[in-house]
Amino acid sequence: MRVEQRHEERQYNLVADRDQAAQLAAYDLVDARELAPVEITLGPQWRMVKPGECYHLDLPSLDLDSDAIVLARDFDPGSMMVKLTLVSEDPAKHAFALGQTGTAPPTPALGDPQERDETHAALTGIGVYPVATRPRCWRSMRGGATSRRGPM
């Protein structure tokens, strides 16, 4: 895994307290790691959904089992279908951003690590090898993948 340092400067207008600025910067950091956008199309019973509402997604077909916040809703009166644009929401990020814990929450991902390795191998043709059975040229082979409703 390649580790790269990035430096970015941000200005938080009207924030005089350095602790609050640090909390806002931490929220910017953990929000950038969330899964977004997630777009799903639903039936007309979902037409009253409003941006900002939080739901729990349990969608095995998309390998999603997490909370999500509605960013946008589009309703097509012709087909009576509702398209929601969502972003994942990890409740563990709040304790980290507010300085209550020093451990960052894990980066959101689809599936478990073994499933991601198998998908990567199928797409690239590059296998994942246990340490004991790695081919000799392994370095050159590296290929580099019910709802709770309410306002936030």
How would you describe what is shown here?
- This protein is α+β, with helices and mostly antiparallel strands and 152 residues long.
- The chain has a domain at 11-34 and 90-109.
- The protein is built from three helices and four strands; from the N terminus they run αββββαα.
- The chain has a four-stranded antiparallel β-sheet with strand order 1-4-3-2, with no helix packed on it.
- A hairpin with a 4-residue loop joins strand 3 and strand 4 (81-89).
- Mean pLDDT is 78; it is low at 128-152.
| Coarse shape | globular
**Biggest sheet descriptor:** 4 strands, antiparallel
Radius of gyration of CA atoms, rounded to a whole number: 20 Å
Can you list the strand order of the major beta sheet? 1-4-3-2
From the structure provided, what is the oligomeric state, counting identical versus distinct chains? single chain
Average pLDDT number = 78
Beta-strand residue fraction: 15-25%
**Amino-to-carboxy terminus distance:** 36 Å
